[in-house]
Design goal:
- It contains 10 helices and 7 strands.
- By secondary structure, it is α/β, with parallel strands linked by helices.
- It has one domain.
- The N and C termini lie far apart (48 Å).
Length: 291
C-alpha cells in the first residue's frame, strides 16, 4: 500500500481510509481478545491516555511487541531487561543532529539507512526516493507544528485536521468512536518495576525530548506480569476497604508489605498506572486532600 501511495499520491486519502479501517478493527479485536485473558481486580482500559514527562521514557522495548495487536497483553519474562537505551538509538541521534546541529536530513545516518532500504526494496513506509524525501519533509512539518502549537493528542489532530504525518487526517471507510484514534498515540510498555519502555512513536518522542516538553499523552500496550500482579494486589486491597468504608475514608490502610513494594516504584503512589486504581474508585491517593 505504501508503494501505491508513492506512485499515486492523489489517491493517498483513499489508501489511508483503507488502512485506518484495518487498524481500527485490528485494535478493537486485539485489545478485547487480550483483555479477556486478564484476571484480577486491576482492570485494563485500552482506551485510557496518561500524561507523563518525556524524560520518563528512557528505554525502548525493541521489536518485542506490536503496538496494536499486543495492546492489553500481560507478559512475563525478561523482555524488560533486554531493552535499548533510547538516547543511544540511531534515530534519536539523527533527529538531534538535524534539529539541534542543523545537519540536512540527507546527511544523517537515519536518512542514509532508510534510503538504502528503499533502494533495496526493504522499506515498507516508502517505496521510492521521492516518497522517502516527502516523508522526511513531513517530519519537519510535525516538528514545526509541535513547536508552534504544542503537543496535540490524536483526537485534537483529528478535530483540527492538521496532522502533518497524515495518520489522523483521513477517516476510515466506516464510522468508529473517536477514542479509537488514540491507538496512534505514543505507546509504551511497562516493565516489572513500573518503568516505561517506548513501544511506538520514536519520531514524536524524539521531538518531545528535543523541545523539552513537560508532558506528553501516551497509552499503554503491554504490562509485565509482575507489574500487573502488583496492580492487582493494590486494587484488591482497595476493594476490601470499600466493602466497609466509603470512598472518602478508603485507601488509608495499605499493608506494610504492599507499601514497601510501592515505595520501589518510580513516583510511588503517583505512578499513573497505580494512581488510576485509586481515582477509578473515587479514592484519594495517600497524601491527597481529596478528589
Amino acid at each position: 500500500m505504501r508503494y501505491l501511495m508513492d506512485r499515486f499520491p492523489r489517491s493517498e486519502p483513499l489508501f489511508r481510509r483503507l488502512w485506518n479501517t484495518y487498524d481500527h478493527v485490528n485494535y478493537s479485536v486485539s485489545s478485547w481478545k487480550n483483555n479477556s485473558s486478564n484476571t484480577g481486580s486491576a482492570t485494563i482500559d485500552p482506551y485510557r491516555t496518561f500524561y507523563i514527562p518525556p524524560e520518563k521514557i528512557t528505554y525502548h522495548s525493541g521489536k518485542e511487541f506490536d503496538f496494536i495487536s499486543d495492546t492489553s497483553r500481560v507478559v512475563d519474562g525478561d523482555w524488560d531487561k533486554e531493552s535499548i537505551l533510547f538516547s543511544s538509538m540511531l534515530i534519536h541521534n539523527s533527529f538531534k543532529s538535524h534539529y539541534e546541529d542543523g545537519l540536512d536530513w540527507e546527511e544523517t545516518d537515519y536518512y542514509k539507512k532508510k534510503l538504502r532500504a528503499v533502494q533495496e526494496g526493504q522499506y515498507a513506509r516508502s517505496r521510492t526516493p521521492t516518497g522517502l524525501k516527502r516523508r522526511f519533509q513531513r517530519l519537519d512539518e510535525l516538528y514545526s507544528t509541535i513547536e508552534q502549537y504544542g503537543y496535540q493528542t490524536q483526537e485534537q489532530l483529528l478535530s483540527n485536521q492538521n496532522d502533518p504525518m497524515g495518520i489522523t487526517s483521513t477517516r476510515s471507510l466506516t464510522t468508529f468512536p473517536t477514542d479509537s484514534i488514540l491507538r496512534h498515540e505514543i505507546t509504551v510498555d511497562i516493565g516489572r518495576t513500573g518503568s516505561f519502555y517506548l513501544n511506538e512513536g520514536r519520531h514524536r518522542l524524539s521531538i518531545a525530548k528535543i523541545l523539552d516538553l513537560d508532558l506528553i499523552p501516551v497509552r499503554i500496550a503491554v504490562r509485565h506480569a509482575e507489574w500487573q500482579d502488583l496492580r492487582n494486589q493494590i486494587a484488591a486491597s482497595l476493594e476490601d476497604e470499600l466493602r466497609t468504608k466509603s470512598p472518602a475514608k478508603a485507601g488509608g490502610v495499605i499493608g506494610d508489605p504492599l507499601k514497601e513494594k510501592i515505595s520501589n516504584v518510580p513516583d510511588g503512589f503517583s505512578h499513573p498506572d497505580i494512581a488510576i486504581l485509586f481515582h477509578r474508585r473515587n479514592i484519594s491517593l495517600p497524601g491527597e486532600t481529596g478528589l
